[in-house]
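Hi U.,

Before I forget, here's the chain from the pilot set. I'm dumping it here mostly so it's searchable later in email.
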Amino acid sequence: MVEKMMARSVRLLFTGGLMATLGMAGTAAAQDNTNMQRVEITGSSIKRATAETASPVQVIGREELLRSGKSTVSEYLQTLTVDGAGSLPTGFGNGFAAGSTAISLRGLGATSTLVLLNGRRMAPFARADDGQKSFTDLSTVPMQIVERIEILKDGASSTYGADAIAGVVNIILRKDVQGLEFKADTGWSRYDDGKQNKASVTFGKGDLDEDKYNWVVNAEYMQSDRIKNSDRKDRAYIGSGDLRPYGFPIGTQFAGGYINGTNSVSPSPTGMVRDPVTTNYVNLPGCAGISATTNQAGANGGCLYYQDQWRDMQPEIESLNLYTKGTLQINEATQAYVELGYSKRSTAFTMTPPSVTPTVAFPPNAQTPQGFINYGNLNLMSAAHPQNPFGANARMRYIAADIGPSERNADNEFRRFVVGVKGSLAGWDYDTGFTYSDSQLDLEYTNMLNMNVVTQALSNPASQYFPYYIGDQAHRNPASLYQAMVVNAMSHSKTSLSVIDFKASRELPIALPGGNIGLAIGAEHRREKVTNPSLAGSENGSINSSYVAAFGDAKVSAVYAEILAPILKSLELSAAVRYDKYDNFNSTTPKVGLKWTPIRTFALRGTYTEGFRAPGAAEGSSSSQSTGTSTVRDPIRCPNNTPAAGGATQTDCGIPVAAVKVGDANLQPETSKGVTLGMVWDPFEGTSVALDGWKIKRENEINPLPYNEAAALPTAIRNDNNLVQNGQVIPNSGTLILTQAPYRNSSFTEISGVDLDIKQRLRLGDYGRATLGMVITHVASWKRQESATTVYQFAGTHGNCDTSNCAGTPKNKVNLSATWDINAFNFNANLNWRDKMKNIYFEGGPCASTLANGQPGTKDCEIASFTTLDLSTRYNVNKNFTLFASVNNVFDRVAPLDPLTYGGISYNPMDASGAIGRYFKIGASYKFF
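Structure:
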């Protein structure tokens, strides 16, 4: 009776609505081995009678997912408290991996989060995030056919892979469908934009018991309109680069076109030409007809513009997901299966027009051994140019508004094939199969510049392209010039994954006081290939884009074993060990867990695990290189968070800097150790409580040199507008442009925190039934130690901005949920809250954003907390026909002002619902048979 009650309570805690689907027997039945139905839970290969293990596993059932009102799997997962910095939202269209989505458990990055589909790996997205981090694109998963999602939260898994340092997300698709079901919905924002249409059809036929086969097929189509930042111009600061009304200086990271001082400007859409004698820039006329910014106060004679004049907030998306699985019951003990998956997703995201004077980086070559070109010094306006007001060749600065904004088009195709056999033989349950998947990405960046033509058109009077008229005189240019100068830069990338795997489990005839020992063994061999060339023309600096490429080919073989030992009826020990052999590395990683149930309503549990991640293709190959951008405080021009005398301004205290990251074949693997300790408790009837403390330490960590440290290097590339103090020119003190941030094995990252999960079930008699839930994640520490003397604490701050998307690390996140079923109705509410964050890069650092008067840029130098409420309802007209509706961000909360992040203009990309505004959705589903 004790074990029966405990099994029931913990199953409810971990599975919620999943319990009926799993159809688990109670422990009383489990004691009768002849009728016991066993299931396999993520994190273990040993089938067991109950869903609970020593590891904390969060399970999201199908109903919970569909009731959320979210459109995609990633959109839902990114609302969970376990998700952190480094995840990729849909609106992150200016990132390296635009067109994809990803989850980052514990904020350790998408590359440390292993995502599985039906317990097996998928090929990573064909372009690494930040040019470094390989990850699985969640956009390829069809949401309508998801059965449940299991999240293993205690770190590396001996079963699935030691590289799952932050944990495992296992998405399990339906396999028991019978009949034909159609579902469609449409959505729109309160601004009557961002319209989204989605339709899916699911068909299943055959019963494994009666017909000896089952076949299921699902097709899902989605189309979503783009939202431009300018579409939210009346929503306070949302999408606005101009934060002067809020007290900020003219030069934010999304501003340009202003004159900052002697020999210091930001390129304008009219063009600027520098007086060779005084080194002062003069702006060309015509600003009012080109820039959408009417308030030119503070531009110092320049032509001020902000990126929201062009840039999108949310991309245009069109996607198609296809999935089918066939299962054949060969005999009572043998089952064969095959899975096929296909996904095609096209996204389009509008950026800004290109600059004709960029600094671009690429692999060094014989012609350019320094590996970069500063077109700001090279593209001179000839003395013979009709728009040059000076009688000599002169430097210029120009953003080419005449050719229009650049658009990033990403077309990604994902394919997956699985064939396998599972069954029972000689007392063993086994499963073996072959998996192949690949991801192919075609990138096209429109309205890029052929820099060779630009140089000739500006600087060489003998060229057929001379002169290139700029700004308000651009209408004088012939079409032939644009045909030669404007190019669409493209690349084709591919990743592929081939895996052969085998696993088997059984109960050994070794009896302990709590029962027989369970054993599982397994092996796999996989090959991963990455071919990610850079945009054509970026390999030698002939277009206005830096080089971003990764290449790699790795083979990995692994074996593992696991035991489950019921030492006592109240004490269960689980242990596993995994051995991985890479091309150049090998590892042995253990995992141990313990679960103790001293009384019927209470259990203690804990785990210890070790992980191992070899350098990825972007990190460990010298042929891989990328250039990323992050906002930093220039330590030369803004020491102690104060602009230096002699020409620096407040802009130097928060300036975007590009950093070149190059792969290194000498990098060593990352290793990790993780510990969890927690309890589950049923204090009252219908109440379940889980409390788990966790700690993960990732050592020998692969990181680029932090951007703030890279900015202080003497090798940093700067303009020659050096500071002048007491009549003396300070060498190498000009405006920061580009620096080196090589990958290296830094010391370690150590994070710790607590998860609390409470569920309360209510039986309301004639008023139906209800379930209340609360999940809290508290991050006590998120510390990265770069060296023996340099430590960064990110918990509660806006960091980490060097190796994540600069979304910040709030100390607390909360999900509250309530669902009520009464007759044919279901009502559901979800409240998501994240804590405030200090607006600093790391603990102890100065305020990252400052006002024009030097005061903190946000109240108390904090990014305010953010809360949203989502409501949904469903009405079963009859057993076949269902109507549903939802409202996200019911109270239309505005996302807090965030002037530091680069993923959204003046708002945090993880607060996107507060930028889009209240969002409505209605739909229906019909089951034909």
